[in-house]
Write a structure and sequence with these properties.
It comes from Pedobacter zeae. The structure is a single chain. The protein is α/β, with parallel strands linked by helices. It has a single domain, classed as 3-Layer(aba) Sandwich (Collagenase (Catalytic Domain)), CATH 3.40.390. The protein has 8 helices and 12 strands. The strands form 4 sheets. The chain has a 5-stranded mixed beta sheet. Strands 2-3-4 form a 3-stranded antiparallel beta sheet. The longest helix has 15 residues, at about 115-130. It is globular. The protein starts with a strand and ends with a helix.
Length: about 280
């Protein structure tokens, strides 16, 4: 997840707009990290339809398009799905989704302040209230869940800051196993708002279970002109979910960029989630 147009305040971004994509733009470390990526990897990422602008190498893989984490497995996996209706603004899923339903997905929080743990509990309540065939619960104390929420500390640069990041489900039908949340004061301030954190984590869990950005075909819808561009179907897929709207959906929890506040499921999001998991 990302925010845009950072000024000097210790929140996500500018006073006007925040971005909701799992990654941030143009940090100094991104420029340095990109030089550590081989030409073959850059070519592969570009061939999959992802922009290499502001590409970052992190321990878990490659951070592209604001908040999307591509692993080495993603880069080598053959495409199995289609790219549908890319000119419209609708809910999209990846080729891989969580399988073996009904299923309980456990969530753990590692080395983060209490407010992050409380935000995870709020996120769990939001998903579980939908009555899906996937449910979420906290992992037992001292254990690592199917999804582990961890922290990283990175400041803003180039008008953007990363709020959080996550990847997509595996080819074996498991959710992506980690969400990274930015603990830098410029992301959420020195006293993070519980509902805002819960909204970002809710968005990142959406990626973990197979949702792409609602405005993946043109991120300018939520990110402004500087975020314009189609994220590309790539080998992870960008499959439109039937029943979701063909026009812009300004309240979707899976918009690429955050509005800086509390954003949860709207009616169209519920249609999309029910289609996959109810």
């Amino acid at each position: 997840m990302k925010t845009s147009n950072f000024l000097s305040m210790a929140a996500l971004c500018l006073l006007f707009t925040t971005l909701y994509s799992c990654k941030s733009n143009n940090t100094e470390s991104e420029v340095q990290n990109k030089t550590d990526i081989s030409a073959d990897k850059l070519a592969k990422i570009k061939s999959l339809g992802f922009s290499t602008d502001n590409l970052r190498k992190i321990d878990e893989g490659y951070l592209v398009e604001g908040d999307i984490l591509l692993t080495d497995d993603n880069l080598t996996e053959n495409a199995k799905g289609a790219n549908l209706n890319i000119a419209e603004t609708e809910q999209y899923r990846t080729t891989n989704i969580v399988t073996s339903l009904p299923r309980v997905i456990t969530i753990s929080v590692t080395n983060l302040p209490q407010v992050y743990s409380d935000a995870v509990n709020t996120m769990i309540s939001r998903y579980n209230s939908l009555g899906l065939r996937i449910t979420f619960q906290r992992a037992a104390a001292g254990t690592t869940g199917n999804i582990n929420v961890v922290g990283f500390n990175e400041g803003p640069s180039g008008g953007f800051i990363t709020l959080g990041s996550a990847g997509f489900p595996t080819s074996s039908g498991n959710p992506y196993n980690q969400i990274r949340m930015n603990t830098n004061a410029a992301a959420y301030g020195t006293n993070p708002n519980l509902l805002y954190l819960a909204s970002v984590i809710q968005h990142e869990v959406g990626h973990c279970i197979g949702f792409r950005h609602t405005d993946y075909m043109n991120r300018a819808f939520s990110c402004g002109a500087s975020g314009a561009g189609n994220e590309g179907a790539s080998n992870v897929g960008a499959i439109r979910i039937p029943g979701t709207p063909s026009g812009p959906d300004s309240a979707s929890f899976m918009l690429a960029c955050s509005n800086g506040g509390n954003r949860t499921f709207n009616a169209n999001d519920v249609i999309a989630i029910n289609y996959l998991y109810k």
